[in-house]
Specification:
7-stranded mixed beta sheet, alpha+beta, single chain, Aminopeptidase
């Protein structure tokens, strides 16, 4: 596996990975209705690309396939972290997180899904609060988490 900086040409593959990962991996913790508003399958590629270009963003690549990606902004907010459903449990998320965390000084914050919460806890992140996020009238639970360094 190789980690490299995100490029605009990765955008479509990244958004497809996001959609599939949410609908497969997060299905054990969220209803179909919640998954459908979280990952609609109608990604605005221009907005995604602008967001990923505006953050420090990396992709994990194996055999020319993007198997994971993540991004962090200059304040230490880890925005997205997703690993392809077929590549879970191989240390990809850990490698991505390690690189993202090294890119910014100070503490790290994230809004972790129910599914991702144990992963972040193992990395030393603490739950600040549980929250409900509303999308199209549907509420999803996530956790504001922080890691002091």
């Amino acid at each position: 596996m190789e980690l490299r900086k995100y490029q605009s040409s990765d955008c479509r593959e990244v958004t497809e990975l996001f959609f599939n990962t949410v609908h497969i991996i997060n299905a054990k913790d969220y209803t179909k209705e919640q998954l459908d508003v979280w990952a609609t399958g109608q990604a605005d590629l221009e907005k995604w690309d602008q967001s990923l270009q505006g953050h420090y963003s990396v992709v994990a690549v194996e055999n020319d396939v993007i198997v994971g990606f993540g991004d962090i902004d200059s304040t230490g907010y880890l925005d997205r972290l997703y690993v392809h459903a077929n590549y879970q449990g191989r240390g990809i998320a850990t490698a991505i997180c390690d690189q993202l965390e090294q890119a910014v000084p100070g503490s790290i914050t994230t809004h972790a899904s129910i599914t991702a919460k144990p992963f972040f806890e193992k990395r030393g992140n603490k739950v600040i609060k549980e929250q409900k996020v509303e999308r199209q009238g549907i509420f999803l639970t996530n956790f504001v988490m922080a890691k002091e360094r």
